[in-house]
Amino acid sequence: MAETPWLPHNEAEPTVQLVLPDGSENTDTQWDHYRNLVKDVDAATWRTWYRDMALMRRFDEEATALQRTGELALFTQARGQEAAQIGSVHATRAQDWIFPAYREHGVLQVRGVPLKEELHLFRGVDHGGWDTEKHHVHLNTLVISAHTLHATGYAMGIQRDGLVATGDPDTDAAVMVYFGDGATSEGDTSEALNFAAVNQAPVVFFCQNNQWAISVPGTRQYRGPLVRRGAGFGVPCVRVDGNDVLAVHAVTREAMERARNGGGPTFIEAVTFRQGAHTTSDDPTRYRGTDEEQYWSQRDPVERVVARLRAMGAWDERFHTEVTHEADEFAAELRTYVRSLGRPASSAMFDHVYATPHAINQTERDWFAGFERDLADGEGGH
Amino acid sequence: MAEQRIPLAKAINAALEAALSADPKVLLMGEDIGPLGGVFRVTADLATKFGEDRVVDTPLAESGIVGTAIGLALRGYRPVCEIQFDGFIFPAFDQITTQLAKLHARSRGRLTVPVVIRVPYGGGIGAVEHHSESPEALFAHTAGLRVVSPANPADAFVMLQEAIACPDPVLFFEPKGQYWAKGDVDLSAGPYATGQSVATQFDTLNTAKVVREGTDVTLIGYGPTVVTALKVAQSAAAEGTSIEVIDLRAISPIDFPTLIESVQKTGRCVVVHEAPVFFGAGAEIAARLTQECFYHLEAPVARVGGFHTPYPPAKIEHDYLPGLERVMDAIDSVLAY
User: Fold this and answer.
1) What residues of A are labeled active site?
2) Is residue A1 included in any domain, yes or no?
3) CA–CA distances in Å: residue B68 to residues A188, B236, B275
4) Chain B contacts of A363, Cβ < 8 Å?
5) Among B63, B71, B99, beta carbon nearest to A151
6) Predicted local distance difference test score (pLDDT) of residue B1
7) Predicted complex ipTM
């Protein structure tokens, strides 16, 4: 408290934690329920999680570098949120659907969305349209919280399709929507929670409370602890240490299972920290101190996984080198790909504005094509 | 031909019923649209016929209605949302303009969001604040949306079916002052009533209609002002002036070829809508016609509509609305050139 004034609600609220920052097991019996949910998590799973988190962090570093060298106009950094994203996404199944905000790079990566395609948005090549059906990952939504309603509506569709609570683990489906602490102030988040509750829609609200909505801290964003936000709507809620990948996985697994089984929505507050800036255009030195950053660097999610693997005797240098090598190759490919992305044809702006012919769109497209042609002819004539 | 004389509200109800019957993916969503049948009874009896999972009484939240409709559409459903009154659409403005309008383009054509938003609009019914507005221009200004408004029961019946069948999002503005005006409706027309499995033609969403031929002045209206325009044309005819009346039907897109053809013939044009004249649909029409018919025009295109004021209290709303006298005055002014 006094020494952590930027965390006004953290100490008071029960927070699920299964692995301590030093990598040792949290033996607190109040979390036995969650511990029992993830008894099957073995060393191989831990290594998969480490690999995913390391790749996510490397992606963050590489995309940031690409922005710094002018190859990207912008990038939304997610360093520090690896456990929240990787732990939760691994609780989804192929038939589930994910609605990201715009910082869910690790989620996209695990679901198989080519991250290089996500960078189209940040290079200004297109608005980021990957194949949503293939990966069951909806597009990024930049208007804060608008997608919480899309996720809820989508879940209402899954209900109507009869794909909830049939007992078939391969088809019963749910939706997970990612958003941040800032998004909880938007009315759409409250409306989404309410629509989901009223309909008992199979949707999990996964709030990554990374402490900062650009420059505004939680103390200026909300008064009551975020985790209690769901209760007023009749939605079960749980607060979890968002930098503890195992705990995140446990609470998300339970929530997704509840949703698939017809138990309706869950609100999860994953307490984490955005170690980087909001975007590459942001400057955190203007609004937060190094003391806070140090507090969180001692709770780094990737280091915690390494410590856990060491404690389990499942960490070795060969594995470390393998993952590092894979991350290097991944980064190099990303770099080459991004640099090769040229500008789209100017006429692309007229594409797909409507699905059926629209006279104004057609007329302007034709006019522009003629204008370009005349311009080219004029140049040719001189 | 199953022709019946029914009010506009009933024609909309019949179109909804035809769509619900023909396509199990069609859903209605809105406030009080279930057992009550909506505050205007437009959805009367549909909840009984199709069940509460398909005629959904939603929580009272317009952004929530449109936002969840987008999600349902992404899942393959065809939601038809009712916004209770024109002035209540603004909580959903963000979802409509930043999400619904843009998802097809954002996904580079991979996603379609066939959502229809029905909006009872317009004044003249003696209502309180926020219940008589005409916000259509705000949506026509947004690429990705279609904006239409029927003026009579027959068009309402077909246009709404085409709107529901259309893969683009459609803002469907219903002239609430005309809800109880009757007209002959061919109940076998339209994509759902005719049993077409996939509609490919959306004529009424793209075209204006000449509803009265004339030679001296082109008078353009849509929704609630078409009735006014026809009355003006009738009384002008008694004075020897021949007015061609065009029902715009579609506000995005606007069927300029039909307007241009008419104005090139008449050389004079008046546009009338209830929405404020300032930045209204009439401004766009006047600008385009000036460009396309410059050498045919005998007078500047005149506009008649609401003022740049909040919609006034009911006791004086008829001074705000473009009534017969103001439209006649505009006709006289363009004839004076």
Assistant:
1) 274, 278, 287
2) no
3) 10, 49, 29
4) 256
5) B71
6) 59
7) 0.96
